[in-house]
């Protein structure tokens, strides 16, 4: 179990690291600073705390889920889609300044994480609650992206 948690932590934090390459310079960019942002936009430190918590919970969830799932290829495919959407949002939004396509990417990511929650509930039951921070945060992040898209 511990080895699976470590493997998923490495993979998930790699996604955060790659995304961070685009986010760090993007948050301080003239483009982002000048955007009209939602009044409920949290302070910057909340994003790092939230994503760290999310990836820890998601890694534990995946470590419990892995041995319970018969169709490993389906789980891997879904995880890869989630990973690519998670990493992909950062350059779309912060590097290319594409708020509309960014909204599509983050909305798809939210749907994928929601699918994880409902699809694999029978396999891991109560441990599915480990996905709630991810899903709740994505709803908040999607609303922030949508506000930026609509108000800029």
What's the CATH topology label? Ferritin
The secondary structure category is mainly alpha
| Overall number of structural domains | 1
Q: Helical region count?
A: 7
What does the model show?
- This protein has 152 residues and is mainly α.
- It has one domain (2-151): Ferritin.
- The chain has seven helices and no strands.
- The chain has helices spanning 2-27, 30-33, 44-65, 72-95, 99-119, 121-124, 132-151.
- Helix 1 (2-27) runs parallel beside helix 4 and helix 5 (99-119) runs antiparallel to helix 7.
What key attributes describe this structure?
single chain; 152 residues; mainly alpha; Ferritin; 7 helices; elongated
Summarize the model shown:
This protein has 152 residues and is mainly α. It has 7 helices and no strands. The chain is elongated.
Q: What's the SSE blueprint?
A:
Layout: H1 2-27, H2 30-33, H3 44-65, H4 72-95, H5 99-119, H6 121-124, H7 132-151
Helix pairs in contact: 1-3, 1-4, 4-5, 5-7
């Amino acid at each position: 179990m511990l080895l699976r948690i470590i493997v998923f932590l490495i993979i998930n934090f790699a996604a955060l690291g790659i995304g961070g390459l685009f986010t760090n310079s993007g948050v301080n960019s003239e483009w982002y600073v000048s955007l009209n942002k939602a009044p409920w936009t949290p302070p910057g430190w909340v994003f790092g705390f939230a994503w760290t918590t999310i990836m820890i919970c998601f890694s534990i969830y995946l470590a419990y889920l892995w041995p319970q799932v018969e169709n490993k290829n389906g789980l891997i495919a879904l995880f890869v889609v989630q990973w690519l959407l998670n990493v992909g949002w950062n350059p779309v939004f912060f590097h290319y300044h594409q708020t509309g396509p960014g909204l599509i990417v983050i909305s798809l990511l939210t749907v994928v994480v929601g699918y994880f929650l409902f699809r694999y509930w029978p396999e891991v039951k109560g441990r599915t609650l480990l996905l709630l921070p991810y899903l709740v945060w994505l709803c908040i992040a999607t609303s922030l992206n949508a506000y930026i898209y609509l108000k800029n």
